[in-house]
Amino acid sequence: METAFISKLKPLLDAIAATMEVYLPAQAGEHEAWRKYQPQGTVELQLNAIRTYAPVKEFLFPLRELAAVFPAPARPTPVRPFAFFGLKACDLRALEILDRVFLEKEFEDPFYAARREKMFTVASDCAAPGESCFCNVLAGKPYPESGFDLNVAQVADGFLVQPGSAQGKGFLFTHAALFGDVPDALLAEQAQRRQAAESQLAQATRDFPLPASLGDIVEQGYGSEVFDEQARTCVECQACTRICPTCHCFYLYDTRQQEYFGVPNAKLRVGGPFAKTKIWDSCLRLGHAQVAGGANPRRLLGDRLRHRFLHKFVYFLERYGIDMCVGCGRCVDAETGNIDIRTVLKLLHDELLAQGHKPAKAVP
């Protein structure tokens, strides 16, 4: 079965929830956050028009988790199948980036792998991209084209459901009774809605035309004073990296905690059992680059801001072949210091042009 039609979301969600836990966006103040779906609920369900304020990263790569225990090895806790409903195209691209990092052959993270294997992804079209969104600057679109098991798009009388994987096709086949056929008129309506979203996104990014390669812009602008100037308002809150769906820096520290061993800390002998705990880190943190002896090659905020851009648009691209930014705009919304990633890129680009440099063209 290819694209199918369903008039309401609840039967679809109930069918998914029959075999796995389901998380979907729910209103939390001015934003939407991930909440566990309760099938017994009576609230009319709607698609989220834009990505949630927090990414799914924290479910796959928790803020803090046990990484190793000695002498007994730490093993992943058995994971029950789970689904995320309402992921946007930028979220799917972020998952691809995290997969490159945590599922990389001999460097595979078994904890991440155990969760990722059990994840069922239900994406949805963006109905109303926000002013901070800029996925189109990175060749993205406000609707998914790959990387999902199912994609849901709203039309006038219901929703179109498209499979994107063997698992998604199997789901539609198994639950064929829930779905109806899709007339050409609904496909045409979907295309019109997607075109409207692309136009809205183009309007939101009208002040940031960047036809050049972002990696080349950042690399050629290495010595620019733009980084120091923009960093003047930075308060080192690290929100830009914490809320980012692709930032994945972490550090390990030794810990002895009762919850890991089941005995009071005082009874743990020196040289006895100990644990390594993994916790998120941020390249904007002063101590991120500090080495033994106290030396720090990135003591200044401008140097740390430069490194953030180099990692996203140069280093990651060189290693994995893709940018480490998906244009979701979460960092723009979260920034306490009002540092707009789009503004920094445009300033670097304009400065290079003024100096007579011509950054390489962006690859479509």
How would you describe the overall organization of this protein?
34% of the residues lie in helices and 17% in strands. With 364 residues, it is α/β, with parallel strands linked by helices. It has two domains: 4-62 and 75-204, no CATH class; 214-247 and 284-354, no CATH class. Strands 1-8-7-6-5-2-3 form a seven-stranded mixed β-sheet, sandwiched between helices. Strands 4-10-9 form a three-stranded antiparallel β-sheet, with no helix packed on it.
First CA to last CA: what distance? Answer: 31 Å
Please give the largest β-sheet: 7 strands, mixed
Q: Can you tell me the number of structural domains?
A: 2
Which H/E pattern describes the elements?
EHEEHEEHHEEEHHHHHEHEHHH
Low-pLDDT stretches are 263-271
How much helicity do the residues have? 25-40%
Strand order, largest beta sheet: 1-8-7-6-5-2-3
Tally of helical runs: 13
Rough shape?
A: globular
Fraction of residues in β-strands: 15-25%
- Rg, nearest Å: 23 Å
Give the overall average pLDDT.
90
Structural class: alpha/beta
Count of individual beta strands: 10
